[in-house]
Protein: Amidohydrolase
Amino acid sequence: MDESEKVRKIWTELGLPGIVDVHTHFMPKNVMDKVWQYFDSQGPMIGREWPITYRADEAERVATLREFGVRRFSSLIYAHKPEMAAWLNQWAVGFAEDTPDCLHTATFFPEPEAPKYVAEAITAGTQVFKAHIQVGNYDPNDPLLDEVWGLIEDAGVPVVIHCGSGPVPGQFTGPDPIAKLLGRYPRLVLIVAHMGMPEYSAFLNLAEQFEQVRLDTTMAFTPFVEETMPFPTSETDRLKALGEHILFGSDFPNIPYGYAEAIHHLIDLPGVDDAWRRNVLHDNAAKLFGLS
Structure:
């Protein structure tokens, strides 16, 4: 059985029409090449060997997700410096037009132009934003983002936000800046990437406190992550209880293991049932993004 058959077997046996993966990366080729070079060099935000399992051209990567039965996925672009986000957003418009099963994605960075291009992105039909606090090295409460968060909150567009301190902490990572942000914009629909690793418990607290906060499972529970940032077994019951706040994410293509492996470690968690599995792999995201 090849990998696509293994993945399809999982969601078919659960009675699902496929998978919704909220955390996948598609970027302009020159940007993706630089990302892969960074992983290959074991850069300071990685610090360990990290092979790219699905290193292939864009068309092949899209085809792979479709073979897996992924109904919707994202093109999580992110800016690490000024004057980059608007250009990435323009690229993402074209990618979404050419790839109808990709959620129209956009990003932003704390800069004076951000409110203008974020408003334009919302008008153009952006379905999800990506914010990367670690790579961007910015405070989510930077005054330059005040209007941006207000626009996104009012529009109800979800934001996949890498704000946990894994794989290594940054100046502005961790739960405290996000708690402060949600105190100011409590209606924000935040999807905390990687379950907020390694501050799992604190981000579960935020999901309990704020109805619109979700967490994506990206890389969590896999042996690769469990070696250094294990999910606390004491939180298993709370993870199950918060099943409607958990969304599947993979980090495809930039993962050092197979897609089927990631899903198996998720669905084999102790104490979860098929309703939880269906919610996480498909139904929660389908509801959030209005998929039929």
